[in-house]
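Team,

Forwarding the record for the chain on the shared tracking sheet. I've put the sequence and predicted structure together so nobody has to dig through attachments.
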Amino acid sequence: MFNTNGKQIIEAKYGSLDFVGDSLIALSYNIYVEDVKHALFNIEGKQLTEFKYSNIDKISEGLLAASKNNLYGFIDKYGMEILPFKFDYASNFLNGY
């Protein structure tokens, strides 16, 4: 991935790239394996989390629903785990809920 000045900010070694917020990207290495793991990066290419999430949803009200080890929780735009990964299901927040 390149910025508007043509500078490469993320190497072309990842299997998928999903924009999950204005300045956030979820990347994974290999989308063709059963247990694919995603990590959160910012738009400058800085890695914010390890490759440990099965899924990272789009940001909503400052939080991203994510899953790991078959449980859901929430991370913030800095990659910090805000709500614990103990839920069977989670969806995006809407109006504080």
